[in-house]
Predict the structure.
Amino acid sequence: MKKLRLLKLGAWLLAGFSLGTVVVAQEEDLLSKMINRETNGTWYFQPDKPKARHFKVPELPGGYAFRVKASKGVNPWDVQANSPVGGAINEGDLIMINFYARAEEPAEGGSNLTVRIQLGSPPWSSVLETSTPITGEWKSYCAFRVANADIGEKKSNVSIHLANARQVIDLGPVLVFNFGKGYDQNKLKFCTG
């Protein structure tokens, strides 16, 4: 597993979000809810051959992305991208993921990725899992869920499964937020949920 650094979160964050996120950010301190502040641009790729390519993307927050080639595997996770999440997640917390991606070479019939926030070791149980179609244009993808389990600090990661088809996927930064228990989900209307 090779560690690849993309960026550190900076003042650019609010400019890089969708309009809906900016509205939420204006109402409260959204940055204080981020639980992967130190790792939002860190990706690990498994397997690490062929190596993911790091390249400039000026229109993305942070200005860089990674390109990873995947073949159809026996399991969708046979090729995956992982990013550590530092903060704790408690059962009942409302968590949200926002990541940037595009299908540089889409799968036949279109690329569809499974994205998870999960325990970073066996049994790999997930507190958020979503499947989303990825287009050929850079886009910010978003989902939220109420966590159904506890995962301690530095024990979770974001995992994107890439081996569901032969495809080339570009990944930009990934942001993970924990809004805690009882957060008004209506404030996240901009997110696909």
